[in-house]
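Quick entry between incubations.
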Amino acid sequence: MASEAHGAEEGGLVFHPMDQFIIKPLFGGDTISWYTPTNATLWMALAVVAVIAMMVIGTRSRAIVPSRSQSIGELAYGFVYKMVEDVAGKDAVKFFPYIMTLFMFIVFANFLGLIPMSFTPTSHFAVTVVLAMLVFLTVTIVGFVKNGAAFLGLFWVSSAPLALRPILAIIEVISYFVRPVSHSIRLAGNVMAGHAVIKVFAGFAAIAVVSPVSVVAITAMYGLEVLVSFIQAYVFTILTCVYLKDALHPSH
Amino acid sequence: MATETHAAEAASAPGMPQLDFSNWGNQIFWLVLTLLAIYFVLSRIALPRIAAVLAERQGTITNDIAAAEELKAKAVEAEEAYNKALADARAEAQRIVAEAKAEIQAELDTATDKADAEIAAKAAESEKAIAEIRAGALEGIKDVANATAVELVAALGGAAEDADVTEAVDARMKG
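Done. Structure below.
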């Protein structure tokens, strides 16, 4: 393989940091058509299972005094609900299930991806771009449906001096269309980078002298990755709320 | 198929598998299914259930607090009633004590007056009796002195007239 050849120069060190992201058909074969179940499918399905386990099975007792599992479900609910209410406003609450879906999917995809030998769907731009475009399209459509042409006031900074407004409008428009790009690359980039760095450290572990350092580094990276997994899901969700607030209340 | 060779190449390429656009369709298809599944589960089952539980808990807490406040008000009321009853009882007791005291005092006064009057009457009676007795005693002494004087005179051999003796005795007793 090409990667082996380029790693072989370093005294037999073999680096395949990106191999973990390769999408393979789940049941053998080489072709990946649009419906083929792949490792990505498997881990997305596991995320669904995890969501059901936490939010449905965990809350099945509907107790007034919650059990531990129910508490976790309520905590997740309260966390996202409060975020939507605080950041996007009271009238954004009807988008709460939608935002909750995004948050739960990202959080579980990220955390399940931390299991060794697993696959992380959110490390792929195909996934994050779709998520970001969903948010972008939702926000744009909601903005125009709710406010009509007044939604364009988002780009017209009425508090700035008149001479600056056209320039600011151009900047605002550019930044508006860059949103889905940064929104998607931030998530996939963070997840991918962390996973790749862990693999690189793991590659160094082949040298006996370096291996303790490598193990410590992997442990530290893993801890960081746990944080990143949650924080990126949080960031994605809160940015969604911020964009939604722009759509519902476009005035600056 | 073109995708077949492309995918095989991408699998072994040193580049980023993320930029292998041949499997984007596949990922997007499964992602959409995943999101729909999660959305359905959350919006139909999980979120309404948790919302109901939270609302119910909030209701229970509110009711409990209201009930606690009611009970507290009742307790305060009961305490006030108790204090009032206590004060009433105390006032009543004081009134009874004062009444009894006044009654006793009045009785005592009348009894004292009566006793004083009796004592005064008795003292006057006694004084009268003593005066009578004293007067009687003086008469007796005079009689005894007369008789003794008559006897003495007779013993000395004289014969005295009673009138003289009496006169003489009176004169001596005065002097």
